[in-house]
Design a protein that fits this description.
The chain is α/β, with parallel strands linked by helices. The chain contains 20 helices and 32 strands. Helix 5 packs antiparallel against helix 9. The radius of gyration is 27 Å and the shape is globular. It starts with a strand and ends in a 6-residue tail after the last strand. The structure holds adenosine-5'-diphosphate and zinc ion (ZN). Zinc ion binds next to loops.
Length: about 725
């Protein structure tokens, strides 16, 4: 007996092994096996096929051990991974290893705890008075504040918000400040538990659901386009309830869980124990247990991040990709793949319905719907017809007085005034800037030398509170010196970051309670949840931060959102720069005016006329998308072409030599059909001392790119100059 094995290593292709008679019964498709590989005596591999004839001329070795009684991967998943291997040009074993929770890669067996019912947590009515007494128990305090802000919620939501909060929850329960109770879900029978009761759908929601339901049982892909708060999640929940009523399973992919804990709570409240969660906030053992529950059919709905696209949901009928435009669905390190695109492939393999939801659909998805490949469903209004906030643009060019060379103030008088008014009215403010630190660049006044990272080709960011210069690419730090190390001249900083915005806000509204939310201010998911909880409890007036403030909670108290600089992403050398800017501005604008008071948004920009900025200000996705698609078509970028990025890394001379050798090998395969951009040094030319070169291939079809890959494979396998080569199909990052 023979098996085809994908070995968990950076090698393309699969290997054939013999199965000793003693193991013949145990070996199953999708199971892990231990095999001798190369010079190592044991490597982990995955059974992906059963060849009938051995490959010629090779001495076959024996499978050493079968590691799973129940294979973690179903036959359909093996098929999906083989598809991904071909399309994304990645080693199948690496993909399989990346797909599994870490616990499973090392340990034998797949037993997990069996849970019953849904646990709900609620703060005791008198607990608000106890918050102050918990000043030294930070974790307990944060959890209690969160519960006071959110009311009665599934413990699952707390777990998503505070991945390490279990002990604190126990302590609060023992002190009588929090009650934890279990409710038995009745969702299984198609009935819904009272606490997670489904609302009656609006006409638009009902129409969307009817279309989706009508497609059940066969493969179909829908684009569900609806602004935030239009009820998309409710449509997902209903579609899944219908699938469950028919005994089928569902998979829901979300961009991240820690910043949007309410979502997992909503799924648990509605479907109880049938939901398995897969995200990085869980320990390896916990993810392992969730995987096993899905595999055994104890859980029938999986809610997870990117890698959950490979989760073993049984009898899959519905796949949801929420916020389908988000870049985090693209895996860029290691074996690269796009979970949203794989969702469509998986839907096809499993005859499932795929729902791609977004307020700002990616142009790829929009174009697919225009070509009739995806069916478009629209939810045109917010649930309670609450208006979208008024957006005002502040033209930063006008703030510069003639003849004056100094930079304009980064908080315009208009924005400063609005902050004062809002805080005075007892309402809340979110200020967004997509740059961490105090100053993004430090320059010597005398010799002009910039503070740069010695290992990466980027400038260092000044973090004033810590007194350091930090490389945002590799994390290296050095002490901030006010004198230039080269000439002794005085150094000054330019380019504003969130730390400086926070300082400016404290000067504008000295009495206000201000906090910052970015990776420097909050080290962990727990810290993040704590800050968000304080904001939700209205213990804070102003929240300053990076993208982290654009997601997360629904804060009814926020009536002003300020975008300090809309242009940070616009100038990047990336054909998606405008699209990302539009998405980000739309998302952050959507934070304002979610309560009973109307909201307003003030966007500061040097490019008020730029399509991405102007259309975000008028909430006009259609005009933005139409203009942007026309531009992409004219310039030949996706969705009107396909891209293959070849990323080369090595020594300065090695990387260059490898890139040039690859270019040489590619030329005969271009055949006038494929455009080769480069070879050229990457936009960030050096990271951690390694030089990076890129080649970008652009073609009308993926087949033409596979031909180019075929011509490059031999060189890529043994690149000259000791460099390493990675293929990235449908690349997302252009840096
Ligand atoms: P989205 O996913 O588009 O942001 P949600 O599904 O989260 O929208 O809906 C926004 C809010 O409106 C949520 O609080 C949700 O519970 C509520 N909601 C959704 N649909 C309905 C409905 N048909 N009736 C009443 N409330 C609804
Ligand atoms: Zn660096």
């Amino acid at each position: 007996m023979l098996v085809e094995v994908a070995v968990a290593a950076a090698v393309r292709g699969t290997f054939t092994y013999r199965v000793p008679a003693a193991l013949a019964e145990e070996v199953k498709l999708g199971a892990r096996v231990a095999v001798p590989f190369g010079r190592s005596r044991r490597a982990t591999g995955y059974v992906v096929g059963f060849p009938t004839a051995p490959p010629g001329g090779l001495e076959l070795r024996d499978v050493a051990e079968v590691l799973d009684a129940v294979p973690p991967f179903t036959a359909k998943l093996v098929e999906l991974i083989r598809w991904a291997e071909e399309y994304y040009l990645v080693p199948p074993g690496e993909l399989l290893r990346a797909a599994l929770p870490p616990g499973l890669n090392t340990r034998k067996g797949t037993q997990g705890p069996v849970r019953r019912g849904v646990e709900y947590a609620e703060a005791d009515p008198g607990a608000a008075a106890a918050v102050a007494t918990l000043s030294r128990a930070r974790a307990q305090r944060a959890l209690l504040e969160y519960l006071l802000a959110r009311g009665r919620i599934p413990v699952e939501e707390l777990r998503a918000a505070f991945p390490r909060g279990r002990a604190a929850l126990g302590a609060l329960a023992r002190r009588g400040l929090v009650r934890v109770e279990t409710e038995t879900p009745v969702a299984r029978a198609g009935l819904l538990p009272a606490s997670g009761a489904a609302p009656r759908l609006t006409a638009a929601q009902a129409a969307a659901l009817a279309e989706i339901e009508g497609a059940f049982g066969a493969f179909a892909t829908f684009l569900l386009h609806g602004i935030t708060g239009s009820g998309k999640t409710e449509v997902y929940l209903h579609a899944i309830a219908r699938a469950r009523a028919a005994g089928k399973g569902a998979l829901v992919l979300v961009p991240e869980i820690a910043l949007t804990p309410q979502l997992s709570g909503r799924f648990r409240a509605r479907f109880g124990d049938e939901v398995a969660l897969l995200h990085s906030g869980l320990s390896g053992a916990e993810r392992h247990a969730e995987w096993a529950r899905l595999r055994k059919g104890d859980a029938r709905i999986c809610v997870g991040v990117r890698s959950a696209i490979f989760a073993p949901v049984q009898d899959l009928a519905v796949i949801v990709v929420d916020e389908e435009h988000e870049g985090s669905f693209k895996q860029e390190d290691g074996p690269s793949y796009h979970a949203r695109d794989l969702a469509v492939v998986r839907g096809k393999l499993e005859d499932a319905v795929v729902i791609l939801g977004s307020a700002t659909p990616s142009l790829e998805t929009l174009e697919n719907s225009r070509r009739g490949r995806y069916r478009r469903l629209e939810l045109p209004a917010r649930i309670d017809d609450r208006p979208l906030p008024e957006v005002e643009l502040v033209d930063l060019r006008r703030l510069r007085r003639p003849g004056q060379a100094t930079a304009p103030p980064f908080v315009s008088p208009r924005l400063a005034e609005a902050i004062e008014e809002t805080v005075a009215a007892g309402q809340q403010v979110i200020l967004f800037l997509n740059r961490r630190g105090y100053e993004t660049l430090v320059v010597c006044e005398a010799c002009g030398a910039e503070a740069r990272c010695t290992e990466c080709s980027v400038s260092l960011t000044h973090h004033a509170r810590r007194g350091i210069l930090l490389c945002h690419t590799c994390g290296r730090t050095e002490r901030m010196e006010t004198r230039c190390p080269a000439c002794g001249g005085v150094r000054f900083g330019v380019g504003v970051g969130t730390e400086q915005v926070e300082e400016a806000v404290r000067a504008i509204v000295p009495a206000a309670r201000v906090a910052r939310l970015d990776r420097d201010a909050v080290g962990s998911a727990d810290d993040t949840a704590a800050v968000l909880a304080r904001f939700a409890r209205r213990d804070l007036d102003v929240l300053v931060g990076t993208q982290m403030v654009t997601k997360g909670h629904d804060f009814p108290g926020v009536t002003l959102v300020g975008v300090v600089l809309a242009d940070t992403a616009l100038a990047l050398p990336d054909f998606r720069a405008a699209e990302r800017t539009f998405q980000l501005l739309t998302q952050v604008a959507g934070r304002a005016g979610r309560g009973s008071e109307a909201g307003r948004v003030i966007v500061q920009t040097f490019n008020p006329g730029m399509r991405a900025v102007a259309c975000a200000a008028t909430h006009d996705y259609a005009t933005f998308a139409e203009g942007e698609l026309a531009e992409r078509r004219r310039l030949g970028w996706p969705p009107f072409s396909r891209l293959l990025a070849v990323r080369v890394e090595g020594s300065a001379t090695g990387a260059r030599r490898a890139a040039e050798t690859l270019a040489h090998a590619a030329r005969p395969a271009l055949r006038g059909e494929v455009a080769m951009l480069g070879p050229a040094p990457a936009a960030i030319e050096r990271i951690r001392g390694r030089t990076r070169w890129h080649l970008l291939f652009r073609a009308p079809t993926p087949q033409a790119l596979f031909r180019v890959h075929g011509a490059l494979a031999a060189v890529a396998h043994h690149p000259p100059g000791g460099a390493s080569v990675r293929f990235d199909v449908d690349p997302y990052s252009m840096m």
